[in-house]
Amino acid sequence: MSKDKSARPIGSPVRLSIMLGLMMVMALTLPRYIKEGHANQETLGWVVIAVLALVSLLQWKLLDGEGRSHLKPLLLTLVGCMVVGLAGVMLYKVIAGGAVLSVMTLSQGATAGLLLHAVALLLRKRR
């Protein structure tokens, strides 16, 4: 059987970094649901995290050596974007006069960070 050189690999470090970021967002959203007593949303959050963990493991196994080496810089970018997202939300809360550090701020900051990471990856791909 000949391998088609134009076929894209199934495992992707970019896809894996987005999934890990989504797991972080979900994990930082769970305390909000616990605090507010939303048991159904909390349970659904745990289920989503478990499914993402399984799919992330599959993606990791499908990555070749080159893909795995590209993952570390992507994860550093993800963490940086999460920090910038959290700082941006905290700055907004200071200006708007809300609670600067709360479970809501962590959830919103993580979401903003993941969105920033995805946009940065999209812009990097277009160059």
UniProtKB/TrEMBL annotation:
Keywords: Membrane, Transmembrane, Transmembrane helix. The chain crosses the membrane at residues 12-31, 43-62, 74-95, 101-123. It comes from the Bacteria. This is Transmembrane protein. It comes from Halomonas binhaiensis. The lineage of its organism: Bacteria, Pseudomonadati, Pseudomonadota, Gammaproteobacteria, Oceanospirillales.
